[in-house]
Amino acid sequence: MTDLKVETDPGELGFDARRLARIDDRFGRYVDEGLLPGWLTVVTRHGKVAYVSSAGYRDLEAGLPVEVDTRWRIFSMTKPVTSVAAMMLFEEGAFELTDPIHHWLPEFAEPRVYTKGSALRPVTEPATEPIRVWHLLTHTAGLTYGFHHAHPVDALYRAAGFEWSTPPGKDLAACCEAWAGLPLVFQPGSEWNYSVATDVLGRLVEVVSGMSLDEFFARRIFTPIGMSSTGFRVEQDDLGSLAALYVPEPGTRRAVRNDAFGDAITRWPSCLQGGAGLASTAGDYHRFTQFLARGGELGGQRLLSRRTVEFMTRNHLPGGADLEAFGRPLFAEMPFHGFGFGLGFSVLTDPVAAKTLSSAGEFAWGGAASTAFWVDPATDVTVSLFTQLLPSSTHPLRQQLRQLVYQAMT
């Protein structure tokens, strides 16, 4: 079992313990009302755990409670891990951020961009510049997701078998070939659109490193910083700790089980999705947040330089724009007002515009099953939330957790 527990009196870290307990009250109500199956959250400051709490069940039907070693599908919280992997290779001089990706992924040598028409008869034109590495890291490549349901190209993704997952039997290389054959939504670098860009980035990591993505993660990231319970599949011996996946019931929004989608994590995937494929524990992902908060080092193992982490967590959108100004008004794992985007993370640029008590410079991301994390360098606070309710837009959990954490700071 992971050793994840409060390390000191919250008051010594600048928190009012009674106010922190409001998290239990608010999130416990979600469980009591049947809206969440269960949850676990971790709050740290200055590298020490100030608060760990949980309520409810990892498996409602079996009556199994959430425990500290519960395994959670983290979906898009895989993206920061893939981004770290890519930047480790960047630090080794393997590529420049401005390099066209077709140097390693030749299928992307001649991308075409949608201009008009329908999904049945799209009209396209050649891209005016190549897709570059930084476009993948910032979701500005012009790629998309089939689940957006907002653009004719989204429909083309669905027709090709890409909506919530990837087609059976297609590995990551084959998926990249398929995506390269579909039109881009816009010219590379001209807009922001949440997309399969990080999955393509994972393939770049594979080709450049000569390792499969799971091997790179295990050898270069997970083993060095002690993430022993994170991977692309939950093994047979660990199934007892796996949380079930739930979705809201239409009308009541009560959490109902969805094994058809949830059981995928128990099988080895044909496609190693660097954008969505991992399962992890609160303890493991806590270690990842601490690695980030400490500037790329944990337990004497430095994977990235502090300068690189600081660079990744700046807003890279042109002109310092936020997602509301530069992005398409579609689903993403964070709000758009007051948030920019870095190399793998959202970046809070304007707390007033975002209507949040967090600090400018906070970097974060979340996952489709309502998991989330953020790192606030200004206050040296990290927070992570784990639950299994798909989609993450069902309840305002992340916004409320920010309120509840920061109102407790003294």
Keywords:
13 helices; alpha+beta; 29% helix; 410 residues; eight-stranded antiparallel sheet; two-stranded antiparallel sheet; globular; Beta-lactamase
Outline the fold blueprint.
Blueprint: H1 17-32, E1 38-45, E2 48-59, E3 64-65, E4 71-73, H2 79-91, E5 112-117, E6 122-126, H3 133-138, H4 152-159, H5 172-180, H6 197-209, H7 213-225, E7 246-248, E8 255-257, H8 259-262, E9 279-281, H9 282-293, E10 297-298, E11 301-302, H10 306-312, H11 323-326, E12 339-341, E13 346-348, H12 351-354, E14 363-366, E15 372-376, E16 381-386, H13 397-406
Output the number of helix runs: 13
CATH topology of the largest domain: Beta-lactamase
Helix content: 25-40%
Tally of discrete structural domains: 2
Could you give me the name of the CATH homologous superfamily of the largest domain?
Answer: DD-peptidase/beta-lactamase superfamily
Mind summarizing the main beta sheet?
8 strands, antiparallel
CATH class of the largest domain: Alpha Beta
**Could you give the order of strands across the largest sheet?**
3-2-1-16-15-14-13-12
Outline the low-pLDDT stretches.
Answer: none
Gyration radius, in Å:
20 Å
If classified by CATH, what would the architecture of the largest domain be? 3-Layer(aba) Sandwich
InterPro entries: Beta-lactam-related, Beta-lactam/transpept-like, Diverse_Enzym_Activities
Protein name: CubicO group peptidase, beta-lactamase class C family
Pfam families: Beta-lactamase (PF00144)
Fold and architecture overview:
- The protein starts with 16 loop residues before the first helix and ends with a helix.
- Helix content is 29%, strand content 17%.
- The radius of gyration is 20 Å and the shape is globular.
- The model has no long low-confidence stretch (mean pLDDT 96).
- It has 410 residues and is α+β, with helices and mostly antiparallel strands.
- Helix 2 (79-91) packs parallel to helix 6.
- It is built from 13 helices and 16 strands.
- The chain has an eight-stranded antiparallel β-sheet with strand order 3-2-1-16-15-14-13-12. A two-stranded antiparallel ribbon has the order 4-9.
- The longest helix has 16 residues, at 17-32.
- It has two domains: 10-77 and 228-406, DD-peptidase/beta-lactamase superfamily (Beta-lactamase); 84-209, 3-Layer(aba) Sandwich (Beta-lactamase).
- It has helices spanning 17-32, 79-91, 133-138, 152-159, 172-180, 197-209, 213-225, 259-262, 282-293, 306-312, 323-326, 351-354, 397-406; strands at 38-45, 48-59, 64-65, 71-73, 112-117, 122-126, 246-248, 255-257, 279-281, 297-298, 301-302, 339-341, 346-348, 363-366, 372-376, 381-386.
- It comes from Prauserella marina.
- This is CubicO group peptidase, beta-lactamase class C family.
